[in-house]
Specification:
Structural class: alpha+beta
CATH superfamily: START domain
Strand order of the largest sheet: 1-7-6-5-4-3-2
Strand content: 35-45%
Number of strands: 7
CATH class: Alpha Beta
Number of domains: 1
CATH architecture: 2-Layer Sandwich
Order of helices and strands: EHHEEHEEEEH
CATH topology: Alpha-D-Glucose-1,6-Bisphosphate, Chain A, domain 4
Radius of gyration: 16 Å
Oligomer: single chain
């Protein structure tokens, strides 16, 4: 299933990129998203800047069929590799579960703002419920990006 989402940030590309590869920013997003636990690492590699967020989110508010598949918490590993200030690769997996999201992240100037575009393919290989889980992952990722946009706007305005 294809996923596409855009978020606007009230800052220049360089400032948005610096924020997105900040450990403190990633921790704030995980906290605001309601993760019950998280661990963030950011490291410079020859191929770019790698941001890794391992988190667990409670599943109590999700449909029953989801809780049967993933349990009481949904373990998520999100990796973003920024190969430049404007381009990145995204990989999200449900740790130990059959589901993934793979795609790209791009940052582009638009006047005094920056538009972040995430385009990805979501795949869950479980017969009968795979499509439902793919739609749910798209919804969860969309909500997470909305939170990232809100936290990012606050971050960039200095009111963190």
């Amino acid at each position: 299933m294809r996923f596409e989402k855009q978020i606007r940030f009230p800052a220049a590309v360089a400032d948005v990129h610096a924020m997105l590869v900040s450990k403190e920013f990633r921790e704030k997003v995980a906290e605001e998203a309601g993760a019950s636990s998280w661990h963030v690492t950011v490291e410079r590699k020859p191929e770019g800047i790698l941001s890794v967020v391992a988190s667990a989110a409670p599943t109590a508010d999700l449909p029953g069929f989801v809780r049967k598949v993933v349990g009481d918490e949904m373990p998520i590993l999100q990796e973003e590799l920024y190969v430049s200030e404007t381009e990145g690769q995204l990989k999200v997996v449900m740790t130990g579960k059959p589901g993934s999201l793979n795609g790209t992240i791009s940052l582009a100037p638009d006047g005094e703002e920056t538009v972040q575009t995430v385009v990805a393919d979501v795949k869950v290989s479980i017969p009968l419920v795979g499509g439902k889980l793919e739609r749910l992952i798209c919804q969860v990722m969309g909500n997470l990006l909305k939170i990232q946009g809100r936290v990012g706007a606050e971050w960039l305005s200095g009111s963190r």
